Amino acid sequence: MIEIILNFLRDYPYIPGTAVVAFGWWLVHRLNSARDRINSERTIRTTELAKVYAILLRTGIYGSLSKTDDAGNVVWINEELEDAIGQIYLYGTSELVDLTQQYVESWSSTQGADGTKLLNGIREHIRKSLGLDPIPGTPHYLRVTIKPNKKNEA
Fold first, then answer.
1. Which of 121, 123, 78 shows the shortest CA–CA distance to 99?
2. Is the torsion defined by CA of 10, 11, 14, 15 positive or negative?
3. What is the mean pLDDT of each run of 10 residues along the chain (154 residues)?
4. DSSP letter string, 88-146
5. What span, in angstroms and rounded, lies between the C-alpha atoms of 55 and 147?
6. For a tag on the chain, would you pick the N or C end, based on fewer CB atoms within 10 A?
7. DSSP category for residue 72
8. Phi and psi dihedrals of 67, rounded to 5?
9. CB under 8 Å, gap of 24 or more: what pairs does 74-83 form?
10. Is this model's pTM higher than 0.85 or not?
11. Alpha-carbon distance 53 to 46, whole Å?
12. Which residues contact 49 (CB under 8 A, 6 or more apart)?
């Protein structure tokens, strides 16, 4: 049996090399596919959590679930916040889900919540996934209110 195999390899010496090349191509393709999938998932997760971060930040800056638009109309942002909570449950880490649970429980019991821990957790997760250094503490955010000019009629 071994003699048959050796004779075959002597007659067709390119077969082992072809097999090694084919296996190498398959292995590299498999590893690249896995890497591409992981990178795609990271991109989607980071993008969605960045949107959630913006909504939570805006809710915190307003201090309520409503805002006034340029025409003076009250605009409710509760649906945006509800969707953001769902996105955290979908894309967030277990730590972010736990912080979200605390945030939601606070909303349900007091009709308000301090989202600082959750916001900081999302920011730290996004910065880590982007390879950025963590920012210690809580940043100071800015809210600018523009007052329309009242024209004096003379």
1. 121
2. negative
3. 87 87 92 93 93 90 78 83 94 95 89 87 93 86 72 54
4. HHHH--HHHHHHHHHHHHHHHHHS----HHHHHHHHHHHHHHTTPPP--S-PPP----P
5. 24
6. C
7. S
8. -145, 165
9. 80/55, 81/55, 81/56, 83/55
10. no
11. 10
12. 87, 88, 91, 92, 96, 122, 125, 126
Question: Tokens representing 4?
Answer: 């048959």
Count of residues making up the chain:
154
Q: How far apart are CA 15 and CA 22, in angstroms?
A: 10
- Encoded tokens for 122: 């999302």
d(CA 110, CA 19): 67
